[in-house]
Amino acid sequence: MTYSTQNASGERTIVALFGKKKSNDSGDAATAEAPEKAKDKNAPFEPKPEKAAPFFNHAQVAHDSASYEYAMTMWVRGVAFDPTDLNAIEKFMASALRFNEQRGKAKGPTSDQKKALAGKSSGALKFSAALLNWGGKGFDWPSGLAVMKEANKLDANETAYWLGERTLQAMKRDEKLKKEPLVDLMTQFEECNGFDLAVTVGELAIQMDPSDQALSQQVKNLSAQSTMAQGGFDSTDQGSFKGRIRDQEAQQKLAASDSLVKTEGTLAEQIQEAVEDYKRRPNDMGAIERAARVLRQRGSQKDLDLARKILLRAYKDNNVYRLKEQAGEIELRLYTQALDALEGKLAVSPEDTELAEKASSLRKKRREIEVREITERVQNYPTDLTLKYELGRLHYEAGEYEQAIQQLQLAKGAKGKRGRVLLLLGQSFLELGWADESVATFRQAIEQHRTMDDDLGLAFRYGLMRALRARAENEEDVSAADEAFDIASKIAVEQIGYKDIRGQREAIMELRKKLKGS
Predict the structure, then answer these.
(1) Nearest C-alpha neighbor of 467 from the set 439, 445, 440, 486
(2) Nearest residue to 81 via CA among 143, 24, 167, 21
(3) In angstroms, what CA-CA distances link 233 with 228, 239, 246, 248?
(4) How far apart are the C-alpha atoms of 453 and 433, rounded to whole Å?
(5) For residue 2, which phi and psi values (nearest 5 degrees)?
(6) Distance in angstroms (rounded) separating the CA atoms of residues 17 and 169
(7) pLDDT 10s digits, 260-305
(8) In 3D, which of 168, 154, 89 has the Cα closest to residue 125?
(9) Quick check: helix, strand or coil at residue 4?
(10) 92, 148, 432, 471: which one has the fewest Cβ atoms less than 10 Å from its Cβ?
């Protein structure tokens, strides 16, 4: 099978996607050999960036010429030689997002893409196949978890950690998520020595099942390992993060009363080493992200400012949006810290009008930044409907109902969010005075919702009641008033303390009397 690509000088070249490399071949990306199986199956995988480079060159040309399907294939074939190249994986994500946008839906890898990796069984190609599947399916969390596992098998720890971060974010967006996948993700973070996020994920799993004592103990153990890892007590082999804590004396010292000071001192050393490494290799993606990560871990204002500057400079030099996204998260964190401090002072001195004005101004500024960041993410991840929901929610909370409706209408297909989308959409129509549209939206939500007894079902009924009341008032519609009163009465019987249901019921009862002339 062949593809036609165009190089920088405008010449057309034909590359054989599935051909084998000849003995005197110059190393064309599309005909390069597949990674060989290690003779010793226990031997660690060794990245070969020089063999990956030709594939990446072809991938970039294909992406620039909008041949996104082929670009995806070339990225994953190159990554099979070097799974540690996060820059290439990031660019693969960009190609996959554009391709899924072109075809309208993330349907999984195409048959041509699957053929490119068919018949291969080496660990690196299994990783590439999993990565291709993840991109083809729109970066859902089950596929993300699968590719993280393959990265761990290759001891590509930085890659596994990076993939796990994104898998965790996708899991958080799944309202139907169960405990078991979280436990699985926790184990994978432990596997790559990402103890900090292993603890975070474990705590989320515990929230779903507080009775699981074994899990609680496991998370406690991980927390101890995380602390010891930060304290520099975990041994590593040949630069791998796979080494385990072996120094029992160091562990005992960690439990001593001065362990916190020692941990902080060692973290400072790690930050110094990471920042110096970054200064030596300012264009290396691993050095960039490592420096930013340890600075964020300590999290002082000075640390966060430096991490943000590093990420923004790297974004300017490399045009990798992920870096700007991380910088935006840091900016939000800084504003949140400042706002929390102000609100803490305001709680002590609630009569201080100057503090109140500063807090209000800072709250407004933080929201503006959050809207800006989510808007940029919507533009960069156009197939992620959850981001459109988040942007719609922010507009709704700010009273920008028309903008909210625009985003929420696009977000109806967001996995696990449809109910909340319809709730905000119905409320937005109502706030604009569009009672009929609000009624129609709430009826649709109720029809599609499985039960009316949960919080969301109750919110739908309450919203429909308000919309019907508005219609009755606007159009002097007796039947709408009757239906609104019936809903209000049923909610009051179930939960008389729900919002302002008593006042709503009384107001609708008076409206009925007025409309009926009695």
Answers:
(1) 439
(2) 21
(3) 5, 14, 8, 9
(4) 28
(5) -125, 155
(6) 34
(7) 443 556 778 888 888 999 999 888 888 898 898 888 878 888 999 9
(8) 154
(9) strand
(10) 432
